[in-house]
Design a protein that fits this description.
This protein is of the alpha+beta class. Helix content is about 35%, strand content about 20%. It has a three-stranded antiparallel β-sheet. A three-stranded antiparallel β-sheet has the order 4-5-6. It starts with a strand and ends in a 14-residue tail after the last helix.
């Protein structure tokens, strides 16, 4: 996700990150190079060298750091980002299970009732257009049990 603009507020101790569709906040407390009262943020900009997918900030001392948009999305618990991370994790697990399986790929494809190209799209971790349902079906064919754990966040 590309960043459109970024601004900082030393009083609120946070950044405001604007994308084409949403505005997110990101607190100073999550930064590696931590600002302080004597060493505040003096500049923040969308970093073109990082493909406009991150912003860089500069402290009064000259120290600087960068924050990737994925960090901002994770902090804000963006639902589409969380879904993509679940799909990514399930895909990596499926890749490992296919590699360890005694079933041939042809047999897995037959049991899935799909084409070879669709099967390879399921195993592609860069493909986020697949559904969680498809991955669960693949893991089921591989004789895997998938548990989803839901718990309240600790304070």
């Amino acid at each position: 996700m590309k960043i459109k603009s970024v601004s900082f507020n030393n009083r609120k101790k946070s950044f405001e990150v604007k994308t084409h569709s949403k505005v997110f906040s990101y607190p100073y407390a999550r930064l590696e190079a931590k600002p302080s009262r004597n060493n505040p943020v003096v500049r923040a900009f969308v970093d073109r060298d990082l493909g406009r997918e991150a912003f860089t900030y500069v402290l009064k001392s000259g120290e600087q750091g960068s924050v990737h948009m994925e960090q901002v999305l994770e902090y804000n618990q963006d639902p589409s980002f969380l879904r993509d991370m679940l799909v990514y994790k399930l895909t990596i697990d499926a890749q490992q299970q296919v590699a360890a399986s005694l079933l041939s790929r042809r047999e897995i494809i037959r049991r899935l009732g799909t084409s070879a190209s669709q099967f390879y799209r399921l195993l592609d971790q860069t493909n986020y257009s697949k559904s969680v349902d498809q991955l669960l079906k693949l893991l089921s064919v591989l004789d895997c049990e998938v548990d989803v754990l839901v718990r309240a966040r600790s304070a």
